[in-house]
Automatic annotation (TrEMBL):
CC terms in the record's Gene Ontology section: mitochondrion
SUPFAM superfamilies, sorted: Actin-like ATPase domain
Underlying gene: OSGEPL1
Name of this chain's protein: N(6)-L-threonylcarbamoyladenine synthase
Keywords in alphabetical order: Acyltransferase, Metal-binding, Mitochondrion, Transferase, Transit peptide, tRNA processing
Gene Ontology MF terms in the entry: metal ion binding; tRNA N(6)-L-threonylcarbamoyladenine synthase activity
């Protein structure tokens, strides 16, 4: 806790007056008896300000979220200082909305859980400092949460999943494969050696100027690629998945992005257009990058399944693969993973899309 307090000191701190006003804003009957422990979860690791109240049986009592996507679309990517300010502007309101929806008085909380890593330092700092102020005022236990562990365990809120199981976390900021042997007991099998798949999709979408495409102007990069890919030919360009001969479970997406960029430059010359204009072949490029990414993810995941089964780390039959994170919401990637799990006698489980992206429920 001393370390956390020192860390919080360099970030935004709400004044005591604001915290007291926040606490006084709740009008609940005192003395209510709750049979279950109740946790407030706060998430500010990147560009979503989220909070939720969950009890120990898994009931979501209240939640709220503020997305910054619309703001960051205009700047072509997440600007940490902008994300930090938006978290500052919204965190008190979001926490208050989650508590109001739950009809739980802050004094009746059993603990406050908050993401402390990994993520954008400026964004994390806002949630951390707000939480520590609230912890100090309420005299409640503070639970530091690892963002990726929360994603990995979210599936146990919606499905009866026993340990051990394999988890694939794929998003705009992360990419890893791990064997989940218990709560806080993870065996890391593979991770991205450079950028995350969602980050790669966003960069390709920006290079293709999809924000200027009439069908994609309000979509994030990943959503725009998925949308256009449905109209394109995935075999129009012949691109091999990265790390084809690497005998491990790691990922790499920078090389794929560079190859796609070269294809885009070539097509721009062929079509006689300048960078910043939308190519007529944008749908084919989107389909190609999505297909190649999916193949790469599936091949590395297949290696992880074989590794675990050969060493009896997973059941030989009906082993569970959990896929979570924003990219796991991509229908094409999910279908490719279903084909893999069917072929390897595994069960694929994915949290609902709203729980795949960052949220306060997974933290609570």
């Amino acid at each position: 806790m001393l370390i956390l307090n020192k860390t919080a000191g360099v970030f935004f701190k709400p004044s005591k007056r604001k915290v007291y006003e926040f606490l006084r804003s709740f009008n609940f009957h005192p003395g209510t008896l709750f049979l279950h422990k109740i946790v407030l979860g706060i998430e500010t690791s990147c560009d979503d300000t989220a909070a939720a109240v969950v009890d120990e049986t898994g009931n979501v009592l209240g939640e709220a979220i503020h997305s910054q996507t619309e703001v960051h679309l205009k700047t072509g990517g997440i600007v940490p200082a902008v994300a930090q300010q938006l978290h500052r502007d919204n965190i008190q309101r979001i926490v208050q909305e989650a508590l109001s929806a739950s009809r739980i008085s802050p004094s009746d909380l059993s603990a406050i859980a908050t993401t402390i890593k990994p993520g954008l330092a400026l964004s994390l700092g806002v949630g951390l400092s707000f939480s520590l102020q609230l912890v100090g005022q309420l005299k409640k236990p503070f639970i530091p949460i690892h963002h990726m562990e929360a994603h990995a365990l979210t599936i146990r809120l919606t499905n009866k999943v026993e340990f051990p199981f394999l988890v694939l976390l794929i998003s705009g900021g992360h990419c890893l494969l791990a064997l989940v042997q218990g709560v806080s007991d993870f065996l890391l099998l593979g991770k991205s050696l450079d950028i995350a798949p969602g980050d790669m999709l966003d960069k390709v979408a920006r290079r293709l100027s999809l924000i200027k495409h009439p069908e994609c102007s309000t979509m994030s990069g990943g959503k725009a690629i998925e949308h256009l890919a449905k109209q394109g030919n995935r075999f129009h360009f012949d691109i091999k998945p990265p790390l084809h001969h690497a005998k491990n479970c790691d990922f790499s997406f920078t090389g794929l992005q560079q190859v796609i960029n070269k294809r885009i430059m070539k097509k721009e010359k062929e079509e006689g257009i300048e960078e910043g204009q939308v190519l007529s072949s944008a749908a084919d490029i989107a389909a190609t990058v999505q297909h190649t990414m999916a193949c790469h993810i599936v091949k590395r995941t297949h290696r992880a399944i074989l590794f675990c089964k050969q060493r009896d780390l997973l059941p030989q039959n009906n082993a569970v693969l959990v896929a979570s994170g924003g990219v796991a919401s991509n229908f094409y990637v999910r279908r490719a993973l279903e084909i893999l799990t069917n072929a390897t006698q595994c069960t694929l489980l994915c949290p609902p899309p709203r729980l795949c992206t960052d949220n306060g429920i997974m933290i609570a």
